[in-house]
């Protein structure tokens, strides 16, 4: 990225942090006495504070959703294709807030933060979190920003779970709920992938029961494998084949040559894994995947999703992607059916895409149309 | 608005709960919401149509009607509508069963293939009719199950479906003709049904 930023970018942005001294009661029964949330905002909050949109991040996401931190940034925020002037989440119209959830590792209080009680990093002692804890901390952030009601709460994947939980926990504070490539609860297959990733981390000799920071080390190999497992599940067979095929990065198929053969996909996954291992905290990964596994929208409503959604007052937009096998369109249709069963306003589109779960972050003409038209119809007066 | 859509409103109760199958760009649903204060959902498969519905602020659900209505409970809607879509379905008779299960009442409209123009075209040209109402060639048409007014009557009798109202409407030809011989002079058939 050079000096001139794209015209449809929110431009240069600076993350901000807010410290909360009011304790946050957690679903586990424990209390977080004080905590910090890191967030970014794009666009302007209007006088009546009725144009605020909350972006909830997925597993490895954070507060930097759009724009650039410096003119030399190689890449913009993680959802830059969808947030900006003239984009589906139009910053000419909306005031957009994106944050790093508690338990994360990008500036908000999490396992790599210092536990005030001990003066050491929290590590494995950081309280276990549920999706609802993120939602209640986000509500505290909304209070601080003076936002009584979000025009929309929007999230993909794990972010979609937060958006749905918002609609049930704070029905009067959400006017529109946009749930993308998400589910009311994970399937056993999904939990299996998460557990395999967690075991890769725990099995790393440098994990040291989660107290690696105290020993000045990091379980990089385990975290890298965990990310590789996750990454595979976010892609589709097509996307991998198209991008890498069976191309070799080194070696050859010729007989009698001892040089090791390395496929492009192998080196790509290792690169992704290594990059992630250098920027993400292993305890955060364990904590967040557990919250994902335990999420069950309707558990406390007698396992009846219709009863659960009866709490909601928001209007919903649900979007899925045809080749997403991690959060398949079927999971989105379950959400839609429950919403219709509860007689809630809902629209649903299943977007044709070849790119699996990752599709929700990628440019796609039909996705952009559905998303833009829905958000354009939101009244912010 | 299409003439069949205009007729339908008389059979829809104020404030009732509606499911519109193959709702297209949502014209009818929007009209019924504005004029009859109904609530409900449109089901649609076409991307452009879904976009148009979202633009109108309607509840539109992407769903392929050929896969049935298994996601809806029995009698969960006052009226299930399907205008000019029956002939595009793979198994129209099964979808009709589903409509009657999900809705307390149903309204179906379809082009009457027994209309004299279609008969005349086939008789004189020896080819599948192409007209203003049916502007497709046989190979690229979305309409795969044409029927006549009479055919539909037979199906309703076989299935013991109660016909509450029946009507044929024309965009142009004189009204009295369709009263005398609906199968010959009615362009569009409208049926109001219940179990």
TrEMBL record, chain A:
Q: Where in the cell is it found?
A: Cytoplasm
UniProt keywords (A-Z) are:
Acyltransferase, Amino-acid biosynthesis, Cytoplasm, Methionine biosynthesis, Transferase
UniProt-recorded name of the protein: Homoserine O-succinyltransferase
Which residues does UniProt call coiled coil? none
| Species of the source | Cellvibrio polysaccharolyticus
Please give the GO cellular component terms listed in this UniProt entry: cytoplasm
> Which residues belong to any copy of the AB hydrolase-1 domain?
51-338
Query: Could you tell me which InterPro entries the record lists for this protein?
Result: AB_hydrolase_1, AB_hydrolase_fold, HAT_MetX-like
| Pathway participation | Amino-acid biosynthesis; L-methionine biosynthesis via de novo pathway; O-succinyl-L-homoserine from L-homoserine: step 1/1
Q: Which residues form the active site?
A: 157 (nucleophile), 324, 357
* Principal cellular location given in the protein's record: cytoplasm
| Residues reported in the UniProt entry to bind substrate | 227, 358
Recorded hits in HAMAP family, A to Z, give: MetX_acyltransf
Q: Which reaction does it catalyse?
A: L-homoserine + succinyl-CoA = O-succinyl-L-homoserine + CoA
| Gene Ontology MF, one | homoserine O-succinyltransferase activity
Q: Where is this site: Important for acyl-CoA specificity?
A: 326
At the top level, the lineage of the source is Bacteria
Per the record, the similarity remark reads:
Belongs to the AB hydrolase superfamily. MetX family.
According to its UniProt entry, the function of this protein is described as: Transfers a succinyl group from succinyl-CoA to L-homoserine, forming succinyl-L-homoserine.
Binding partners and assembly:
Homodimer.
Single biological process term from Gene Ontology: homoserine metabolic process
Q: State which Enzyme Commission number(s) the record gives.
A: 2.3.1.46
From TrEMBL, chain B:
Matching entries from Pfam families are given as: MetW
Its domain of life reads Bacteria
Q: Which Gene3D superfamilies match?
A: Vaccinia Virus protein VP39
Query: InterPro entries from the xrefs?
Result: Methionine_synth_MetW, SAM-dependent_MTases_sf
The record, for CDD domains, names: AdoMet_MTases (cd02440)
The protein, known as: Methionine biosynthesis protein MetW
> Could you tell me which species this protein originates from?
Cellvibrio polysaccharolyticus
- The gene is metW
């Amino acid at each position: 990225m050079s000096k001139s930023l794209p015209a449809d970018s929110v431009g240069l942005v600076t993350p901000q942090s807010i410290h909360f001294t009011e304790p946050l009661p957690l679903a586990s029964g424990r209390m977080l006495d004080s905590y910090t949330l890191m967030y970014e905002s794009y666009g302007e909050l209007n006088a009546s504070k009725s144009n605020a949109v909350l972006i909830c991040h997925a597993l490895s996401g954070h507060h930097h959703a759009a724009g650039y931190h410096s003119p030399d940034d190689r890449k913009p925020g993680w959802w830059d294709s969808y947030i900006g002037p003239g984009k589906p989440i139009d910053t000419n119209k909306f005031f957009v807030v994106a944050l790093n959830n508690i338990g994360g590792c990008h500036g908000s209080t999490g396992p790599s933060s210092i536990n005030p009680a001990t003066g050491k990093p929290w590590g494995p002692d950081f309280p276990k979190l549920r999706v609802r804890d993120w939602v209640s901390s986000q509500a505290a952030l909304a209070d601080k920003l003076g936002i009584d009601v979000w025009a929309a709460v929007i999230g993909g994947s794990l972010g979609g779970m937060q958006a749905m939980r918002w609609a049930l926990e704070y029905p009067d504070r959400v006017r529109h709920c946009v749930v993308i490539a998400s589910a009311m609860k994970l399937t056993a297959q999904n939990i299996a992938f998460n557990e395999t990733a967690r075991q890769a981390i725990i099995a790393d000799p440098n994990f040291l029961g989660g107290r690696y920071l105290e020993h000045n080390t990091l379980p990089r190999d385990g975290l890298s494998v965990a990310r590789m497992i996750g990454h595979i599940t976010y892609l589709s067979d097509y996307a991998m084949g198209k991008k890498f095929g069976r191309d070799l990065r080194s070696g050859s198929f010729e007989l009698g040559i001892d040089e090791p053969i390395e496929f492009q996909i192998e080196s790509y996954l290792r690169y992704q894994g290594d990059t992630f291992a250098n920027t993400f905290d292993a305890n955060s990964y364990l904590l967040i995947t557990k919250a994902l596994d335990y999420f069950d929208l309707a558990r406390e409503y007698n396992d009846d999703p219709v009863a659960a959604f009866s709490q909601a007052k928001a209007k919903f937009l649900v979007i899925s992607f045809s080749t997403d096998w991690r959060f398949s369109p079927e999971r989105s249709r379950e959400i839609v059916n429950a919403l219709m069963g509860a007689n809630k306003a809902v629209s649903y589109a299943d977007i044709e895409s070849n790119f699996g779960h990752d599709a929700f972050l990628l440019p796609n003409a039909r996705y952009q149309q559905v998303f833009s038209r829905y958000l354009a119809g939101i009244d912010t007066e | 608005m299409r003439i069949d859509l205009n007729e339908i409103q008389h059979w829809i109760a104020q404030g009732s709960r509606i499911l519109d199958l193959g709702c297209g760009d949502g014209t009818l649903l929007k009209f019924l919401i504005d004029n009859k204060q109904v609530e409900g959902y449109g089901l649609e498969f076409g991307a452009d149509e879904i976009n148009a519905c979202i633009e109108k602020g309607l509840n539109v659900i992407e769903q392929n009607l050929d896969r049935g209505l298994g996601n809806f409970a029995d009698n969960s809607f006052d009226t299930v509508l399907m205008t000019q879509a029956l002939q595009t379905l793979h198994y129209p008779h099964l979808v009709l069963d589903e409509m009657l299960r999900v809705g307390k009442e149903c309204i179906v409209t379809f082009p009457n293939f027994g209309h004299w123009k279609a008969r005349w075209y086939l008789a004189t040209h020896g080819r599948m009719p192409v007209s203003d109402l049916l502007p497709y060639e046989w190979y690229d048409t979305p309409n795969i199950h044409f029927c006549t007014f009479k055919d539909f009557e037979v199906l309703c009798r076989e299935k013991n479906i109660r016909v509450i109202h029946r009507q044929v409407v024309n965009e142009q030809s004189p009204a009295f003709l369709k009263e005398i011989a609906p199968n010959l002079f009615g362009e569009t058939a409208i049926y109001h049904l219940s179990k």
